[in-house]
Every structure is written in C-alpha cells, then in structure tokens.
Amino acid sequence: MNMSETLGRWKATIIDGGSLSLDGGAMFGSVPRVVWERCIEPDTEHRIPMKTRLLLLEDSRSDRVVLIDAGVGDKEDPAFRDRFAIQLPEGTGEAPLRRAIRSVGVDPQRVTDLILTHLHFDHVGGATELDREGQSTALFPDATHWVQQANWDTGLSPNARERASYLRQNIEPLAAAPLEKIDGNGEILPGISVERVDGHTVGMQTVRIEGGGRVMRYLADLAPTWHHLRAAWTMGYDICAITVVEEKQRMLQAALEEQALLVLEHDPVHAVTSLEERNGKIVATKP
User: Fold this and answer.
1) How far is the C-alpha of 68 from the C-alpha of 229, rounded, in Å?
2) What is the C-alpha separation between 71 and 170, in angstroms, rounded?
3) Rounded to two decimals, what is the model's pTM?
4) Please, are residues 263 and 271 in contact by the beta-carbon 8 Å criterion?
5) 205-250 pLDDT tens trace
6) Both ends of the chain: CA-CA distance in Å?
7) Dihedral through CA 26, CA 31, CA 36, CA 40, nearest 10?
8) What contacts 202, CB < 8 A, 6 or more positions away?
C-alpha cells in the first residue's frame, strides 16, 4: 500500500520496493525466539518477511524529486534471490526501481536526487542495473547520490563481518554519477537533513523531513520494524548493539518531542507509526 503526506513544500509518498526474507534470529539479535516469533512469524527456514519500503519526495516549489533508498534490484543470480526469497515490484521491461516509482504515478526520469541511508545490498542494489554487456551502471546517471563519506569508504573496503552485505557491483558504478559524500549531520536540501548513526554499520544515516509544522523521519536500519522501536531490541546484524541502543534512545526522545511520523523501511505490515509516552516510557503507537 502506498501512502502520501504533505510536509510544507514536500509531498512524501511511501513506495513498495518489493520484499525479501531474512533470518529471524539475526533480525532480533539477543531477543529469544519464543518472544520474537510472536511478533513476526518465521517460515520453515526460520526466515521472516521484510519489506523494502522507499520514500519519494516531490518538491512543490521546483522540479526536484528525491528518492530515499533503492531496494535490492535484480542484478543477482537466481540462487541469491532464492536465498533471500526476494520479491520485486510487479511488471517487466524495465528495472524494478523504475517500476516501483512509476507505480505511484511518477516518471522515474524525474528523479534528481537519491539519498542512500547506507550501502548494504537491500538498500542500494536497485540504484544500479546491468547494461547490454552485463556491466553494472547507475540507474540514475544524472541524479545526485547522497551518502556518508564514512559509509562509502566502508562499502569499498568492508570488514570481514559485513563483506557479504557490501557488494562492489552495487557501489563502484555510483562513482560515475554525481556523488555527494556527506560528513556527519546537517541539512542537505531545503527541509531535508541527515543524521549519522554508526551502530548498525559505520556511516549509516537516517533522514529527517520537516515542513508545514510537521516532521517525518526515515529510520532505515536504526529501527527496521515496529518491534525494533524498543530501544533494547537490536539486530545480530548490528556491528555494535550498545551504540544502536544509545542512538535509538536519542532518536526516540527527539521524535517524541517533535511528534514525528516514523517510516519503517522493513516492517512487513506497518509502514508508519508515531510515539507516545506511557508511564515514563516512550512507546510506539499501534499503526
């Protein structure tokens, strides 16, 4: 399901970029299976379904169209797709990301900016496609690609633990497109700012959109599902769980104070949520 919100000059539309399945134990880290399987039911291979939910921002004051994250894409072989039970946006004849954008009535050629929260394959894979010679090339060669410098460096030279998530054919071709490497927090476009977080992977960034007295936050893998909005619920994929907890606590407090709408990139059911305080604790409301 697609949904749109207006935040001042920005029309924000959530896009279904497809889905994949990941190991439930890895997604919930130290949370016991007897607990997490009541949250998201695993399949016979112990995998749980995950959406790849993207965000499209259209500027009413200019021709700028901003996309946040790019999904998995279709460059990988059948064994890879089967391992992760990858489901792509419906249709054929063009790249999955173009189909996803077109599904909400927007011409993919209009995309001027692509903000990448980080370069793991399920967030950046759709930003490239294979040409007729089988070479990986940027899907939006004229669009400005925004990524943290630290994550760009990590993606090109990943540690042994994350190497399987950083695929060179997803990353290297982007160097030929306009590339803006960000160093830390700050506004990158009017009303759009990024916040660097390092607990999941070095140099990940969340995105904050503000306008018309409203705030929306795209959390990426800081809180991939509604259930991960509990500060202590971290992933086995996170490179530093304690850092994730601290980063999440700061984000939850800020989001509560500004009454932000939170976009959940991977939750299989819930696209958005908000926060409230109950008995001194910050909790996510049921969407």
Assistant:
1) 20
2) 11
3) 0.96
4) yes
5) 999 999 999 999 999 999 999 999 999 999 999 999 999 999 999 9
6) 14
7) -40
8) 150, 151, 154, 239
